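Tutorial, part two.
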Amino acid sequence: MSEREVQDGTQDGTGEPGASAAPRRDAVDSVPAAWRLVVYGFQHVLAFYAGAVVMPLLVAEGIGMKGDDIALLVNASLLTCGLATLLQSAGLPGIGIRLPVVQGTSTTAVPSLVSVGLAAGGAKAGLPTVFGAVIAAGLALFVVAPVFSRLVRFFPPLVTGTIVTIVGITLLAVAARQVGGGDPSQGSFGSPQHLGLAAVTLVVILLLHKLSRGFLATVAVLVGLFIGTVVAAFAGFADFSGIGSTPWLGTAAPLHYGAPRFDVVAVLSIVLVMVIIAVESIGQFFAVGEIVDRKVEGRHVTRALRADGLATAVAGVFNSFPSTVYSQNIGLIRLTRVKSRWIVASSGVIMMVLGLVPKVGAIVAAMPASVLGGATIVLFSTIAVVGVQILFQADLTDQRNTILVAASVGVGFLPTAFPQFAEQMPGRQLHALFESGIILGTLTAVFLNLFFHHLRLPFGRRRESREVREQQECRECREGASNADGSIDAPEHYMQHVSPTGKQ
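Running the prediction step on this input gives:
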């Protein structure tokens, strides 16, 4: 179906010419023919498949899990990513933005999830605490969604850019370990063979970005992982022997690793991550609205964040991790001009079906760590670059802002540069808190933003940064943030003040 047919109402959503009495549907609500749902749905699956499987791999390897457990987490991720995408695109009453929004597991959460899992005993022993924190954080976002706009002003681009940069820098240590082979205690760690496999994956990704600016570039990571794994298999570094014994259909039971445990510090860690994810997502929601010519208002943001929170809580029950918007699929919508939310919903169904095929998880689990490392070098560095891009929206000519970024990045990098940093902290809770550079950096950035830009001192005249002055002086911004229920009417320039992505 062409975009023109959809917009002119010449199709009724079934692929047949619509009768004159049939109500018209725009490009977002139109239901294409079944074959288009499948074909375009698979296209979206390919675009976000790599992210959906890489994230559970990172968490599993970070907390010391092996084999079948990694495959289980991969399948759980596919299943819950599909469910989250369905919630956003198809929606429920009061839940879901009902736009073509693809949801997947968030790499932003990886360092905090690994830290929580290791603090709770590592491997399988740590997962009940991890999933308990994920469930609690998801429910918290669901509850506060209507008033979240009141909190967003404390996360301007200055703060979110700093936090995202810290996330990228922290994850690079994980990528470096994977490039070497995954386990530093192995004799082959850092061998030329492992470095060569990582280089093959990296070179394939770079070449695809060089030679293609279309859809192929959006799946460059997936293609790089595939070719790297094939090379590893021929070189004897990939073991696929366990795939044959893995069943074709099946899924792990909810709470497969036991009843969730709700540790205060663990919950706080993931709640902070969910705040960061939510702030990022708001900008993505407005970007999708612009691409599909739909005005996104406060009620839409509230419904979208509720879906985000509910999907995350359900993910914790089904052995998976926090959910976020996948920006690569936003780019795919812009590229293809296919705007139907039902196509994205079909991609969610396809992903859920893949999540019910254990062989898919087993194939991914057989991927050598060094092959994965070649891809994560790019993925994690990109996160840091995105953080720097967000910081460009802040007034870095203000010395206070420069100090805020410098201090937050420095404090956030301490646990990565010196892993024994937290060992002298009294109590398990403080030990877990100081193990996470994301938490330390986030708390530092938020506190310094409050101190420099919001705290009124009893002496002297408080200086305002450019961002604060703009928000206070802009009448439309005040109106946009002053709804009784705390939701956002969100004129575009208001979102530029409070959203890390701003106007797309």
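Strands lie at 103-105, 323-325. In part three we will examine how such features are distributed along the chain.
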